[in-house]
Amino acid sequence: MKHPAPTGLGSLVRGGSLALAALAALAAAPQQAHAALPGSAGNTIVRNTITVNYADAKGNAQAAVSATVDITVTTVAATPTVIAPSSGSTDGTGAALPYTFRVRSNSNGPGSISFTTSDGTFTNIAAGTAPTVPTNIFLGATVIDPSETKTGSQAVAVNATITLAVPNDGGVPTASGTSGGAVNDGVINGLVVNDIVYVGDSSSSNFFGPFTVTAVSDPAAGNGATAAPGSITLKNTSSASISFTPAAGVQIVEAKDVTLTVTQGQIPIATAQNPASWVTTLSATMGAAAAGTGTVTTNAHAGKLSIVKYVRNVTTPVAGTGTQLSPAVTVNGVSSNLFYPAGVVGKPGEMLEYLAVVTDAGTGTSTAVSATDVVPTYAALVAGVSYGSSTAGSIFAKAKLGTGTEYDLKTDGTGGDTSTANGKTTGVSPAPVTMNFFIGAGATSSAGGSLTPGQAAYLIYQVKIQ
Question: What are φ and ψ of residue 274, in 5° steps?
Fold first, then answer.
């Protein structure tokens, strides 16, 4: 589920960081309730007292007599709301990607949330790896008590606080369980200081936040319709002012962030030239209620190299056969497209120029890109200051990425550029001479670099027909 960037008043923003994935924010469109349960909070002590006043036979007033019956409201399981982060991607590496989901209660009281995860909807990839399953979490929840005196719309500025009356919880829950609590323990229906909460609205089914709990009052049961109400103080930790209208029975519910990790299963993907993805579903369940779900898409990428070899006759330009190089490539300041994949002829003593075009035709980055090319039989590699006489450190080839800067590659490996290509030669003519090319960003004189999708490297050298 995706949400617009924050604007306006009520807002939901992410609390905590997301590694390699951002949690979407809700703002002017506040977070909607999912099977919300406004009304009485779980663990609320509902007290009913009857008082009888009377006088004796002489008309003398007597002390009133009363009888009280307490009942405790049951927490009802409800479908949690699951807010998914933005999509992520793996560049063909199979790296594990962590995603942070925000899970928010919709119950009237505290309860445990359990999780399941699954992968599906595979496109151009056989399978993801079964995603990890977050550990169970415990979410608190309560409602605004009838004793609350604030009426009408309440505007809470950024970093400002608001204190709301909430029902006494009878000292039942702790911050992580539905039993074992005590009165005055700083826990009110599972909510404690530093919890992230959202507040409902009496005029809609929306929730507003996030707020952070800064104080909790959890008194012992005493007098009153809900046996001595407590209170909770909330700080607006969103990026905008929040307005809501409190009323008795309006929910205050906790949210927590959980992380699951997905891993690319198939390497490489089925067809590197095409997009690949899969969908991961996180299901959150409270008790017997239906599961709340959120999904995130992981995009997988893979590099795939293509290579075309061309040649031209420099001494006597002639047409060859096959698809001519297009567009023209500029070498030594001269633009030429008289390169052909076949059909070029030459005489002894004439100069030929070879051009290799290496392109990443995939959807991801190709790494450790290197190539070797052996000088053809009956030809001598031209190497020198500018394709001249052979000397130590002389130029044997040119290299460039796309229309970028052209760099000289030297036989001793001292030329080149770490953002484009490096190279060197082994062997001495007339024995076979091997040219070694290390291509792309990060290339060194002994290791290949990387090409990004659509990036083309041009490797150019000359030979003389013997």
Answer: -110, 150
Whether residue 457 is found in the same domain as residue 433: yes
- Which residue carries 């319709």 as its tokens? 225
Same structural domain, 206 and 339: no
Q: How confident is the model at residue 27 (pLDDT cuts 50, 70, 90)?
A: very low
Both 283 and 317 in one domain: the answer is no
Domain check: are 258 and 311 in the same one?
no
Nearest to 115 by CA among 2, 296, 260, 263: 260
- Is 201 found in the same domain as 348? no
What's the rounded Cα separation, in Å, for the pair 231 and 208? 18
Under a CB-based contact definition with an 8 Å cutoff, are residues 4 and 231 in contact?
Answer: no
Per residue in 148-200, pLDDT tens? Answer: 999 899 999 999 999 999 998 888 888 888 788 788 889 999 999 999 999 99
Phi/psi at 102 (nearest 5 deg)?
-100, 130
C-alpha span between 206 and 249 (Å, rounded):
14
The range of the structural domain enclosing residue 392 comes to 305-465
Query: What pTM, to 2 d.p., does this model score?
Result: 0.75
Q: Are 438 and 448 in contact (CB under 8 A)?
A: yes
SS (HEC) of 262-310: EEECCCCCCCCCCCEEEEEEEEEECCCCCCEEEEEEEEECCCCEEEEEE
Q: Give the type of residue at 161.
A: T
Q: Does residue 420 share a domain with residue 272?
A: no
Residues 263 and 375 in one domain: no
State the Cα–Cα distance between residues 167 and 148, nearest whole angstrom: 10
Q: What distance in Å separates the CA atoms of residue 87 and residue 295, rounded to the nearest whole number?
A: 9
280, 300, 320: which is the final residue of a domain?
A: 300
Query: Could you tell me the CATH number of the domain that includes residue 325?
Result: 2.60.40
The Cα angle at residue 238 between residues 233 and 243, in degrees rounded to 5: 70
Q: How far apart are the first and last CA of the chain?
A: 68
Residue 55 and residue 166 share a domain: yes
